[in-house]
Amino acid sequence: xxxxxxxxxQKEVLMPWSNQSGGGGPWKGGGNNGGPWGGGNNNGPWGGGxxxxxxxxxxxxxxxxxxxxxxxxxxxxxGGGGLGLIGVLIVxxxxxxxxxxxxxxxxxxxEVGVELxxxxxxxxxxxxxNYNWPYPIGEVYRPQVELQRETTVGVxxxxxxxxxxxxxxxxxxxxxxxxxxxxxxxxxxxxxxIKNTREGINDFLFNIQDPSSTVKAVAESAMREVVGASxxxxxxxxxxxxxxxxxxxxxxxxxxxxxxxxxxAEVQMxxxxxxxxxxxxxxxxxxxxxxxxxxxxxxxxxxxxxxxxARGESARVLEAANGYREQxxxxxxxxxxxxxxxxxxxxxxxxxxxxxxxxxxxxxxxxANNKIIIDSDSSxxxxxxxxxxxxxxxxxxxxxxxxxxN
Length: 406
Known about the structure:
Blueprint (H helix, E strand, L loop, with lengths): L2 H4 L3 H5 L46 H15 L5 H21 L2 E4 L5 E5 L2 E6 L2 E4 L6 E4 L7 E5 L1 E5 L5 E5 L1 H4 E3 L5 E12 L3 H9 L4 H18 L3 H5 L3 H19 L3 E12 L5 H70 L1 H17 L22 H14 L4
Antiparallel strand pairs: 1-4, 2-3, 2-5, 6-10, 7-8, 9-10, 10-11
């Protein structure tokens, strides 16, 4: 609007169709600035106004609609009013169909599709081609539920371009205080996966923001608690399996309390050493303890071999003594019974019994000796010759044995 229009009075402003010369209201036809419908040089965006001669009547609405329709013909495809509307509808339909087509998605093997509609979980889908409302109405997450993930604590592992794995110690994570107030350097690895249940998958997606950092923090906390309740000797030697199991149980309990949807598969202790400043002294102590254990095992093996032998020998001697005792008792019992029976016979016939006992005694005494028989009644030398049949039989058996029985 011109400067003259700015200086018009309140009455002139309230009367835009007044036919004042030089005023130039918004519908006035005269002047260079004839308003949007005026007949001046600047006729507004739609060309000349409804009263090009500068009349002061209001614009014609039908003419205004016609001009608007003409302008739309140039903008919209089709060249006509009805055909332009159809083109608009076609364009809108193509856009809508394209938008709806973006709702198709593919779930790979080992994944589960989690569909969200207006920010709320609607369904979980198996592997394959599925459909959900497109963004921003719908959204799909595809977590890998069968993938076993790995988190290291106390060790920073990097893979070089050649594929070699390099491990770097992280003291702020690995140095821990034991129950007997010693320091130990522990590096370990945690294997974990997403719980393959509906609740577990939803918890993993929406209850924790950074799963790897959460698992690492929980693992470090659990290991420090277990190590803090153990002695350094048991940690460095024979108690590693028990520590791994305790850390596994404590981590799972903590993650379940967080509703993290994470399942701990295994805890592997990779390195358990004293601090680098005293590791040589600790290794000497470990070597001495290993020698002590070896010597103890050798002593136990020797004892396990000697003790059974000694026990067997003592059992043999004891059995021999028991046998000798039983034999002596039996012989004494038999002798006493024999003496009693002989005494009974002696009371019945003393002379006969005495003569019998005399002859039996001579048989025992003279039976094993060489004998010379002397006949006191003979007139010669008194030596009675006899044929030693027992000696002859003994010589004959010996010569048969020497000649092979011929």
